[in-house]
Each structure stands twice: as C-alpha cells, then as structure tokens.
C-alpha cells in the first residue's frame, strides 16, 4: 500500500501539474481543489486559509485530490469540479449548462446596485429587472445588497433556468424568476422599471474564446450573441429596456471591450435613451454600456386648424 502524501507535497505537485497544463492560476486552483476535497472528507466547508494552515501542520492529502487535479489539468473549470462559483460574497451553485459568472460582471452588478440604492433612498422602493440572468448572479446580488428592492430575473434556456431556480430557492426566494424570452418578457412592467441590467451573450460568431474552460464548457447559447457582430441579442435587450424602463430609469449592459462604440450606437439608434456612455470594469477595460431612459415625448395636442386641415 502506497503511503498517502502530505498535503504540502500534494499541493506542490498539483501546482506543477496545473502549470504544465497551462492553467492560469495553478497554485490558487490547487488550494481550491484541496479545500473542496478536505471539505467533502470532513463534512464542512474548508477555506483556502485552512488548507494553507493544514499543509504547514503536515496534514495528509485528502482522498480524491489527485483526480480533481487531473480533471482541472484537462481544463475542466474549477467551478464545475467544486460545484460553486463565488460572486460578490454569494456562493452560487453551477455546473454544465450554465455560464459561470465572472469577476468582471461584479462591476456590472455594482452599477445596478448603486442605482437601486439611490432609487430606494429617494422613493422607498426600487424595481430591478435582470435579463438573461443565467445562474441568477446579478439578480441575487441586487436582492442581497439592496434591502427592500423588488427583483425580477428572466432566463430562456432550460438548463440555465434550472441552475438559477436552485440558486433563487437557496439564496433569495424573493427574486421573481421567469423562464421567458428576455426580449419580450414582463410586458406588465412596461414603463415601471427603475433598473434593467443584463449580461447577455455577445461574442461574435467567428470569435471562438481562447480559454478551453470557456470554449469547451460554457454553453454556446450564453456566449454567442448572433448576427455578424455578436450584438443581435444585445440589441434585443436594449429594445426591451426601452420598453420596460420608466423615464429616468437606468440600463446597464455588459459587452466585449471591442464592442463599446457599437453598443453605444445600438442604444442611440433606439431614440429612447440619453446620457449614453461606457463604463470600465475593475481592470480598466470598457465593458458596459450605461444609459438613462429619456422622457417619453407625447404627440402635441391637435389644434382647430389641424382638425380643419384633416377635413379638407
């Protein structure tokens, strides 16, 4: 019977294996997988800090760690192996069939949260809609961080909806989750919404992601935005936002950094928005379009001369 290696040695070897496989953060991922394996073994959650402390103390490597490392070396996302994706302090359950929320989307959520808080402070209530919610990440972040806000989340894909439903049931039952086409959903809320936020699919059809974790494991329906520029779905989201938002309401939509000008142009073409601009993510990249719903201009009242002219 072979001797069980120490955790310290197992972490060192795992880091080497993952680095050789091209994993971007081999040491961090090795610790995350060790924490998951130790937690599975002990029956309670284990942090990376506890893993580091256990390694110093000479703890044995947990059973199953080698298999997890081998899978990660095949570029299976660490979130698929652990079943958990952190997002703004929440732990979302994820797996095959749903887009894994990214750190850069946390800033998109922050814009929606800041606006919802401002509306709450002014009116005592805020109505937020998250279109193409995926795992439910943005909607759940808003619900957790803006006490009293009413949050709706819309997702069409059946598999992603299933993951979102699990997260809503566990983390925030007060999020109203709807399976529907984001472009046409929630017509009963037309003109009433304070914030529309979205991380829609926007990758152009020919721009296959470089990272195997994305190209091979994120669902295509969550990546590719259709149309030659990848913005067909985002344009549908913009049109839905123009319909849903009240005058002065805010649209926040994520896009690729190379799409900043095109996203602004798509918003401007609706004729429904003002204060159209681009915001950066935490890495300083232009990653979201932000705009306010302009006041709705009513048709001018008919004058007597107009009436007489129409009769002539």
| Number of E strands | 9
Oligomer designation: single chain
What's the total helix number?
13
Examine the coordinates and then state which fold CATH places here, giving the name of the CATH topology of the largest domain. Rossmann fold
Q: Strand order of the main beta sheet, please?
A: 5-4-3-6-7-9-8
- Gap from first CA to last CA: 103 Å
> Which stretches of 5+ consecutive residues score pLDDT under 50?
307-312
CATH superfamily of the largest domain: Vaccinia Virus protein VP39
Global Rg: 23 Å
**H/E series, N to C?**
HHHHHEEHEHEHEEHHHEHEEH
Percent of residues in helices comes to: 40-55%
> Which percent band covers the strand fraction?
15-25%
Mean of all residue-level pLDDT scores:
91
- What is the CATH C-level name of the largest domain? Alpha Beta
Principal-axes geometry comes out as elongated
Alpha-beta classification:
alpha/beta
Sheet with the most strands, sense and barrel status: 7 strands, mixed
Can you describe what's shown?
43% of the residues lie in helices and 18% in strands. It is an alpha/beta fold and 312 residues long. It folds into two domains: 68 residues, no CATH class; 189 residues, Vaccinia Virus protein VP39 (Rossmann fold), CATH 3.40.50. The strands form two sheets. The chain has a seven-stranded mixed beta sheet, sandwiched between helices. Helix 8 links the parallel strand 4 and strand 5. Helix 1 crosses helix 2 and helix 2 runs antiparallel to helix 4. It starts with 6 loop residues before the first helix and ends with a helix.
């Amino acid at each position: 019977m072979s001797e069980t290696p120490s955790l310290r040695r197992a972490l060192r070897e795992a880091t080497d294996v993952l680095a050789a496989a091209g994993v971007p953060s081999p040491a961090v991922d090795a610790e995350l997988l060790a924490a998951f394996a130790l937690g599975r073994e002990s029956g309670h959650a284990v942090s990376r800090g506890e893993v580091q402390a256990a390694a110093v103390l000479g703890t044995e490597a947990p059973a199953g760690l080698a298999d997890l490392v081998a899978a990660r070396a095949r570029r299976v996302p660490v979130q698929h192996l652990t079943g958990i994706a952190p997002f703004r302090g929440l732990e979302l359950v994820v797996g095959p069939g749903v887009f894994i929320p990214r750190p850069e989307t946390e800033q998109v959520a922050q814009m929606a949260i800041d606006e919802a808080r401002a509306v709450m402070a002014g009116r005592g209530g805020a109505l937020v809609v998250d279109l193409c919610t995926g795992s439910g990440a943005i909607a759940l972040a808003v619900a957790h961080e803006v006490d009293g806000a009413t949050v709706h989340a819309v997702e069409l894909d059946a598999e992603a909806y299933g993951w979102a439903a699990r997260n809503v049931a566990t983390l925030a039952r007060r999020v109203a989750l709807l399976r529907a086409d984001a472009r046409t959903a929630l017509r009963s809320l037309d003109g009433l919404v304070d914030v529309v936020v979205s991380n829609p699919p926007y990758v152009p059809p020919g721009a296959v992601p470089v990272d195997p974790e994305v190209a091979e494991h994120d669902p295509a329906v969550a990546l590719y935005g259709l149309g030659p520029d990848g913005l067909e779905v985002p344009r549908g989201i913009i049109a839905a936002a123009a319909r849903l938002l009240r005058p002065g309401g805010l649209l926040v939509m994520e896009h690729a950094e190379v799409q900043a000008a095109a996203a602004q142009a798509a918003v401007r073409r609706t004729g429904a928005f003002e204060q159209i601009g681009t915001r950066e993510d935490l890495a300083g990249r232009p990653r979201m379009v932000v705009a306010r719903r302009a006041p709705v201009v009513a048709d001018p009242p008919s004058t007597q001369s107009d009436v007489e002219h129409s009769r002539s």
